[in-house]
Sequence to fold (666 residues):
Amino acid sequence: MAFYIARRLVWTLVVVACVLAITFAVFYLLPAGDPALRFAGKSPTPAEINQIHKRLGLDRPWYVQFGKFSKGFFIGDKYGWPGLGYTYAGQTSVKALIIARAPRTLLLIAGAAILWLVLGVSVGVISAVKRRSVVDRLAMGFALVGISTPVFWLGLMALFIFWRQLGWTGGTGYVSPADSITGFFSHMILPWTVLALLYAAFYARMTRNNLLETLGEDYIRTARAKGLPERTVIFKHGLRASLTPIVTMFGLDIALLVGGAIITESVFNLQGLGYLAINSALQQDLPIVLGVVLLASVAVALANLVVDVLYAFIDPRVRYA
Amino acid sequence: MTTPREGKLLDVRGLTVRFPTSDGVVQAVSDVSFSLSRGETLGVVGESGSGKSVSNLAIMGLLNRQRTAISGEVEFMGRDLLTMPQDDLRHIRGKDIAMVFQDPFACLHPMYRVGAQIAEAVTAHQDVSHDAAWARAVELLDHVGIPNAKSRARDYPHQFSGGMRQRAMIAMALVHNPSILICDEPTTALDVTVQAQIIELIEEVKREFDIGVILVTHDLGVVAETANSVMVMYAGRIMEYGPARQIFDQPQHPYAWGLLDSMPSIERRLTALVPIEGSPPSLLSPPSGCPFHTRCRFRFEPCATERPPLVAPVPDAHPDACWLPWDEKLREGSKRSVDRLGDAA
Fold:
């Protein structure tokens, strides 16, 4: 198992390096304009542009730039390890910027994930057990609505109703729990719910279908034949076997959200990582984009590893060597 | 309340099972009556889809009551299992009536240790500690012939061979010394060499615990070896039901003849097996008259229109459901007498 994890970690490094190279190549080979122009003020002279090029290191060939970036990442730069360089715009540390923004996104994901897991799995179980009942049809109807409703619309409607009309929650923007714990919850409850609803709908459908499939298995009949109460049959024997695909999805969904919760972040003006990445991409601030992409790809690769290791614990038939 | 020792353990009367589907009503089991005593092995034979398994699932209460129409009576210890509240039935299931299923590869939960699954059967009906339940599981695994039961109990099902899994299933069924053991094709999924061991184990268990066994199978050889009485089913109905000695000596129903003709046997020096032509009818719309008439080589005037009742044709014979005259049944049946063919060879 230890050897397996070590091997997977090495592969994770390879994957991250590939992702970096591709992101770098996209920015270098498909330039939407000269980044220097953005920092040169109105109608700059060629001399000024050249000077900015030199300052940002853009005058060097691409492989030197990539080499310098890679070296900083693996060995560290003046901001410590891993070195992510400095931003074009403010000449400040990219790492510091990411560390400042990351909690917003991570807390958003954590709260939403708990919510959607609890909501999705419990609705799915109820639907499966009460199959074809009114409850099941209602739940699956809502799930369909949840899946098809765009997050930005749902977010705006939630803000309008619960913040502007009813005044039950805080509005847009981020309040650090260090500053005000009630303010934090009041501002996060809507983004959590809106983000969670979409996933909860998916998870409810998935749980329902998996559980229904499992409940048709022969070993469920064995459990009933033993005389176990129906509750034990469903929760201990049924749900256990239905959880494997859900664990996989859960790991990947969380990882993908690290860089992918942009819409929710934008609607609620949380200014997390996704928002940072989009803004930087629009402003051609390559180091920031690379930093966020790096973090997101590490998250996905690690989530994959964690899921695979968890698999072995959930399902004894899976053993790695 | 009947006293178990002398009276019948289980008395099934007019058991009928219908599954309403979107295509119509599947008539899975129609008017099945039989009984089982202690120390008796009842062999239930017939092709796939003849209602053997469904009858047993109905007795165990393992069919979804909401989606199945079940009628008739299943009397066990003076109570009707079919009308009993689910919760009472649950206390009988796995305790007084236990079941061993066809496919031991699919019947054990893949994610729990074998010992834990047996221990769970212990605690389902008995308020004992986890350790005591585990000890009982190990004891039973040892009893059914699992070597190193103590360490093998910690294995997961995929680490067991097919035969061992079926032994584990039997161990699980024996946890509470049930009075009835229902074995639904317990050897179908196993290697031939293992099949004999499992059948032998079931027989041992029956003698040791003095229980009644319902053995569902389409292997007539197994039935010939072990059963005291035999019930031949076709299309959800009983075709022939009687003591095993009589049925193998003097089978009375053309369907039973067909089964015997299509059975390979070492004693029998037939040049070729004779299959029953065609396939079992759809239970959505069973044939009129005798359900077997569409495939029967002996069919004549009344077979297509009138269903023969299950009655004994002459006082000493066992009941069958066939219109053929007795002398023809006697003649054709004695040709297929298992003993006689054995003697001739």
